[in-house]
Design brief:
The longest helix is centred in the first third of the chain and has 31 residues. The protein folds into 2 domains: 174 residues, no CATH class; 159 residues, Protein Transport Mog1p, Chain A. Helix content is 20%, strand content 34%. The chain is of the alpha+beta class. β2 and β3 form a beta hairpin. It has 5 helices and 19 strands. Strands 1, 12, 13, 14, 15, 16, 17 and 18 form an 8-stranded antiparallel beta sheet that branches. Strands 7-4-3-2-8-9 form a 6-stranded antiparallel beta sheet. A 3-stranded antiparallel beta sheet has the order 10-11-19.
């Protein structure tokens, strides 16, 4: 790896106190060990006027949450799968948002426990305190699954989409961005493939997140992973980035007796409003581990990788890679198109 690159350490952004609870609905309440979990992100407002405008923009999604809560309540009472949790987000008058873990539902009353300390109707509640509210008090709801994306969380998703410049103005649950799953990380996001067979894992090497899918051929596997690095020095031009990536990939190829670089091309990628480069490699591995037999034999690994300097954090690089490991007769003719679809969806956190 080029010496200018170094694993990025997590960072913390100070939040506006007045909007803090709303932001807590933006991140899932699951442990970060869960690969589906949305990481905590900072979001601040600069004035009381901006906060009021933001809350007004949220109203359409508040209305949608209230329209759908009865149906969700029926699902909850019928029994959710093991390891699944149901939360509601509430707001009283001009006080801050707070979250309640739902334990029981009695008619239009929701009974549960306050998730974190909150001030409601002049009374202070601490985390774990019992609380009962009317369905009319909710502003959002979310169902957290252990093995797939959460449901609901309309306000949180809108906040994330706002940060990545993917929506503007009022929250609209019918916006196309609400109709598919977008995987958010600390300061970027992308849309993974929706076709069946993909499994989301926590980490691959030092990656933020990785997905894998077995192919039709023996020992065939597709892998997608995203990773961030910190730059030791900045790139002045696209060509500097292209040159660095090409040299680094050639250097890291591995044992030349085992690996043969059949194709290697690195070019500037101009679809994003920042410095990016796209790399295409075709590597022959003469001694690949064959999962079916446990023996070693020849395999091909085709790799398409997009590397971009973060537009707001110039000392940070985001890398998104799609690779296909296959035997010669099983190359996917749509590999490049599939990878480019994912690359096109890459967005960067713009608002802090």
């Amino acid at each position: 790896m080029d010496e200018r690159l170094k694993c990025l350490k997590p960072y913390v952004v100070i939040l506006s106190v007045s909007i803090l609870i709303l932001l807590q609905a933006c991140a899932t309440t699951s442990s970060i060990e869960n690969p589906w979990a949305t990481p905590d992100r900072g979001f601040s407002v600069s004035s009381e006027k901006e906060e009021k405008e933001l809350l007004a923009f949220m109203q359409p999604c508040v209305d949608h949450a209230r329209e759908t809560i009865s149906e969700v309540a029926l699902r909850f009472k019928a029994g959710l799968p093991a390891g699944t949790f149901f939360y509601v987000v509430a707001r009283k008058d001009n006080e801050r948002h707070f979250m309640v873990k739902v334990n029981t539902i009695d008619g239009s009353r929701i009974n549960g426990h306050i998730l974190s300390a909150a001030q409601v109707n002049g009374r202070h509640y601490k985390s774990g305190d019992e609380y009962s509210l009317h369905m009319a008090d909710i502003v959002d709801w979310l169902i957290i699954h252990p093995d797939r994306p959460e449901e609901g969380n309309f306000l949180g998703r809108h906040m994330l989409l706002l940060q990545d410049g993917l929506v503007s103005g009022s929250c609209n649950p019918r916006n196309s961005e609400f109709q598919h799953f977008r995987l958010f990380r600390k300061n970027y996001s992308f849309v993974p493939p929706s076709d069946p067979g993909w499994e989301l894992h926590g980490k691959y090497l030092q990656a933020d997140v990785s997905l894998q899918k077995k192919g039709e051929g023996p020992n065939e596997v597709n892998t997608i992973y995203a990773i961030r690095y910190k730059l030791r020095s900045l790139f002045k031009t696209d060509q500097e980035l292209v040159t660095m990536i090409k040299k680094t990939e050639e250097k890291n190829l591995g044992d030349p007796k085992r690996y043969t670089l059949r194709e290697h091309k690195v070019t500037a990628y101009t679809e994003k409003k920042t410095k990016c480069a796209i790399s295409h490699q075709v590597i022959e591995d003469k001694k690949a581990l064959l999962a079916k037999s446990g023996e070693r034999g020849p395999m091909i690994r085709e790799i398409l990788s997009l590397t971009c300097v973060h537009p707001r954090e110039r000392n940070t690089v985001v890398n998104l890679t799609y690779s296909h490991r296959y035997q010669l007769s099983y190359r996917d003719p749509e590999f490049i198109d599939k990878a480019n679809t994912i690359f096109h969806s890459l967005a960067f956190k713009e608002r802090y």
